[in-house]
Amino acid sequence: MNNKIKAGLYIHIPFCLSKCAYCSFYSIKSISLIPDYLAALRKEIKFYSKSFRSFDTVYIGGGTPSILSSEHLSDIFSAIHKTYRIDAGAEITMELNPGDTSLEYLKMLRTIGVNRLNIGIQAFDDKLLKFLGRRHSASQAIAAISTAREAGFGNLGIDLIYGVYGTGIKSWKNTLQKAVSFAPEHISCYQLSLDKKTPLYKKYYREGWSLPDENTERNLFFINASELEKTGYIHYEVSNFAISENLRSRHNMKYWRHVPYLGLGPGAHSFSGGKRWWNKPSVKKYLITLANGEMPVENSEKLTQEQLQLETIFLGLRTKDGVDLGVYKQKYGLDLLAEKKTMISTLLANKLVRLDNNILSPTCAGMAVADSLALI
Ligand code: SF4
User: Fold this and answer.
1) Of 6, 67, 141, 176, whose CB count within 10 A is highest?
2) Can you list the domains of the chain with their CATH numbers?
3) pTM of the model
4) Which is the closest atom of ligand 1 to the Cα of 24?
């Protein structure tokens, strides 16, 4: 691995105390498996000691990492530090459920090295939170932010969900304004999408409800940008806003820039040297495989040059950084501007992309249709 580019480490905690009505992520409620899980995780951490040496970002995600006790988390961090070098200035993020917040717990997180919290707030309205099946209340969401500040966290991200049936543009604007009033360093706005297996999808189906149509979806997307940008947030990725360039999620930027990352835990994905691999999603299979001294990898793929090129465009055009055409040419020997002349001219004419200093980047309207931009 190129030593100059620092990889990111992702640790997946696949446990949730209850299941949110819209969630299709794999997680289990059997918290009695946590000790076995941590033992397996320690083994997996060691497996990669030769191929990954150091990281400058660590992200503990889930599931719900904040159901782990201080002993559990110290156990994970001590295994990480024993095996890898974590840069002094590393960004160390943990996802936090507002229902799991106490000053003592948050101070403990700071002590073990967590310096960034991503709080799954989703909404500031009790009815809406109940509708979504979240296990926290609006007052717990607000308390989580102030307690995190009291514990000394200077880098907070909050996640919000929009496009929920029965909420309109006015209520979404109120949510954004409320979020901004707490001055978090980072805000992620995710549009509700429903997998057919989720209880909320079944409810929508039963009641004859639908997700927002394309027009409403676009309006809501533009409201995110206008409401947050006018208060100083930078719209740096389709769903993500940071109060300053250096407060972007450094870890997530690695995913969008093809920087190597190691994902540990069930279902976690990794990428390095043009290869992607992912773990078995089931906790039980993960435990059995590691107990047998084997890697819990389910499958892997070596990306072809063409796939890497396409991903560079797809991922680049989701971010404000866009695609540096000079770097692209150097890497893949292709002059994108010449190759896709007609298509790029159309996108420029429709103000979906801009071209400055040989960098092709999406406008806000382009970000709203980022997936189709990648089809150039
Ligand atoms: S807390 Fe997150 S991972 Fe767990 S059920 Fe809810 S949305 Fe899914």
Assistant:
1) 141
2) 7-256 (3.20.20.70), 305-373 (1.10.10.920)
3) 0.96
4) 8
